[in-house]
Amino acid sequence: MPWLSKEFDLRHALPLGFYHAALNIGVHGAIVLPWGSGFLNTPSFIPEKFFLGGSSSPVCTLGGPTSVLGFKSRGLGLTEPRRQVREDSTDESSSGRDFLGGDLAVTAFADLSFDLPLKVFRQAGIHGHAFACAGSLMKLTENAFRSVSFQRFRDSFRTSAGFGIVVPTKLFRMEVNYCYILKRQEHDRGKTGVQFSFSSPL
Questions:
Q1: What residues contact 150, with CB distance under 8 A and at least 6 apart?
Q2: Mean pLDDT of all residues in the chain?
């Protein structure tokens, strides 16, 4: 079956004129649907769906919505009980739920970067930042679109905020962040604490 997939990625950097501070903001969205007769009655295949979470910097992430800092990779969204769970497993990813992804994904971020007071950091390009992230996944197929409303869409967002240090290199961008989960849902895999991030520089 053919698939209809659309994505958009809007971002803007605003220099603030002091301490090399800049405000980066961005909104990412994507939708995927099976295309053909009765397509809204048809379920989406999991490999075609979108998943959110992970530790990639939203400032550097291109190609649609993926990153929500503070949440593990594929760590938020719709879930269902796993059919088989290993009794001897202690891994959080084996907690008895499978993450199903979504047909509609939206993420947004705001990131304020600024120089650190020590000259040695400024010379190396090491700087600080504070950020806020939000993300939502929704199911549209199998007639789920009938129950979509503005309130339900708003309530589906998970949010996080934090601050950290950015270490840029020629090969990658490393961040050491303290992430605070502002809003999560019952089965989401995310927690407040320190998170390391490695991303390709823009």
A1: none
A2: 84
Angle value at C-alpha 148, between 145 and 154, nearest 5 degrees:
140
What is the Cα Rg of the chain in Å?
Answer: 19
Six token digits for residue 72: 């593990």
d(CA 53, CA 69): 7
Q: What is the token pair recorded at 37?
A: 């007769």
* pLDDT score at 127: 94
Question: How confident is the model at residue 53, as a pLDDT?
Answer: 85
179: exposed, middle or buried (Cβ count in 10 Å: 0-12, 13-18, 19+): buried
Q: How far apart are CA 167 and CA 161, in angstroms?
A: 19
How much is the pLDDT for 65? 60
Amino acid type, 78: L
Answer positive or negative: Cα dihedral of 79, 191, 67, 138.
Answer: positive
Strand locations in the chain (E)? 3-15, 22-34, 79-81, 97-99, 104-115, 127-138, 158-168, 173-183, 193-199
The answer to whether 96 and 186 are in contact (CB under 8 A) is no
> Looking at residue 120, what DSSP letter applies?
H
Contact 29, 66 (CB under 8 A): no
Record the pTM.
0.81
